[in-house]
């Protein structure tokens, strides 16, 4: 890496020689750029060192020491001794300390991640699968410190450090691991890094406790909705109340969300995309089927409350309590059963007289269009007796009860309906045909041996032969003559 740094410095020297006529401002920028490059190179070198002090430097800074000391002094004070007399919250020393605590908590998080990478790189030779089973840095540091160089995990009690399901998976995986015990020097550095990560975690808890104790004054409306502990965590993660107020609700919902290791178990009961809002009382008391919906509503109202607190719109917290009541009412409304289906009332009876008149004409019309007896029998079926059909075997048009009584043939009532009698009477009254003949066998043409065909009156000899149909062949009394053979 030193060779890389020398090459960068040589390039910068060449650029400064070639561009000697650049104004003074650009020279200042070039100097700043050179400092940034040196700082980046230094960071890369620090991350590659084996010494823990060169990797983790936050605990040795003056800012860390001062803030932790002020936090401890503030925590030792009683709440009655804390006086807030400044009207503008930005000028309040307590608020300034809270802002410093929020910034320090972010730095502590980054420092814990750096130490976690150091521990993971060192302990990978001993238990390479552990980093994929335990994702949280603090839990990983505690497990590494507890296990040490022990190869048989059945002798190590991990109860209380990890969930029982994860403990089982870690124990099974450790029995088949390919890792080897670490040297004493590497193990001592790893344990020291674990202690430092745990110290940073305890310092972070102190900072969050202090912020939580002052949240009733700093953010009363936000604390009324989500509680002081969750409000302090949201502010600490967002970087202050002003940053939280500028954040959209969808991002507030994700603050504090971390990857969950289910170790092959079901994901049905796990809540994804939920951060610190999962720890609120409203979220925990909501039924599981409505929790994601309640979380979105909670994030939206929390953002509004943070914006009210950022401008000191309501120091009494009345707005936050109103938001909380509104959230409870909406969740209760979601859980209400659907309204019962009301019986539909009958229409109002129509007592006005009908315009359609009754009487003889209506009765005649009903008789004219009434269903016949034959159709009634065809529509009716007798129990236990198969009906006949037009095509047989139950195919075609069924006959119903037609022909079921007696010989099995179709029988229709002989009685003529009134409508048929009326039609027959009208048909007789009309005189069809031009010759007035009453028989279809009579004709006005006659065949004679003299002229062949001639016209004749068929009624001329009616008195002799009777009607036109009466003859030796078509006569009711006439018979065939017998000729004797000779």
Automatic annotation (TrEMBL):
<dbReference type="GO" id="GO:0005687">
    <property type="term" value="C:U4 snRNP"/>
</dbReference>
<keyword id="KW-0508">mRNA splicing</keyword>
<keyword id="KW-0539">Nucleus</keyword>
<dbReference type="GO" id="GO:0000244">
    <property type="term" value="P:spliceosomal tri-snRNP complex assembly"/>
</dbReference>
<dbReference type="GO" id="GO:0046540">
    <property type="term" value="C:U4/U6 x U5 tri-snRNP complex"/>
</dbReference>
<dbReference type="GO" id="GO:0000398">
    <property type="term" value="P:mRNA splicing, via spliceosome"/>
</dbReference>
<dbReference type="Pfam" id="PF09785">
    <property type="entry name" value="Prp31_C"/>
</dbReference>
<feature type="region of interest" description="Disordered">
    <location>
        <begin position="459"/>
        <end position="486"/>
    </location>
</feature>
<dbReference type="Pfam" id="PF01798">
    <property type="entry name" value="Nop"/>
</dbReference>
<dbReference type="InterPro" id="IPR036070">
    <property type="entry name" value="Nop_dom_sf"/>
</dbReference>
<feature type="region of interest" description="Disordered">
    <location>
        <begin position="14"/>
        <end position="33"/>
    </location>
</feature>
<feature type="compositionally biased region" description="Polar residues">
    <location>
        <begin position="466"/>
        <end position="480"/>
    </location>
</feature>
<dbReference type="InterPro" id="IPR027105">
    <property type="entry name" value="Prp31"/>
</dbReference>
<comment type="similarity">
    <text>Belongs to the PRP31 family.</text>
</comment>
<keyword id="KW-0687">Ribonucleoprotein</keyword>
<dbReference type="InterPro" id="IPR012976">
    <property type="entry name" value="NOSIC"/>
</dbReference>
<dbReference type="InterPro" id="IPR019175">
    <property type="entry name" value="Prp31_C"/>
</dbReference>
<dbReference type="InterPro" id="IPR042239">
    <property type="entry name" value="Nop_C"/>
</dbReference>
<feature type="region of interest" description="Disordered">
    <location>
        <begin position="331"/>
        <end position="363"/>
    </location>
</feature>
<keyword id="KW-0747">Spliceosome</keyword>
<dbReference type="GO" id="GO:0071011">
    <property type="term" value="C:precatalytic spliceosome"/>
</dbReference>
<keyword id="KW-0507">mRNA processing</keyword>
<dbReference type="GO" id="GO:0003723">
    <property type="term" value="F:RNA binding"/>
</dbReference>
<dbReference type="GO" id="GO:0097526">
    <property type="term" value="C:spliceosomal tri-snRNP complex"/>
</dbReference>
<keyword id="KW-0694">RNA-binding</keyword>
<feature type="compositionally biased region" description="Basic residues">
    <location>
        <begin position="354"/>
        <end position="363"/>
    </location>
</feature>
<feature type="compositionally biased region" description="Pro residues">
    <location>
        <begin position="336"/>
        <end position="350"/>
    </location>
</feature>
<dbReference type="InterPro" id="IPR002687">
    <property type="entry name" value="Nop_dom"/>
</dbReference>
<feature type="domain" description="Nop">
    <location>
        <begin position="218"/>
        <end position="336"/>
    </location>
</feature>
<protein>
    <recommendedName>
        <fullName>Nop domain-containing protein</fullName>
    </recommendedName>
</protein>
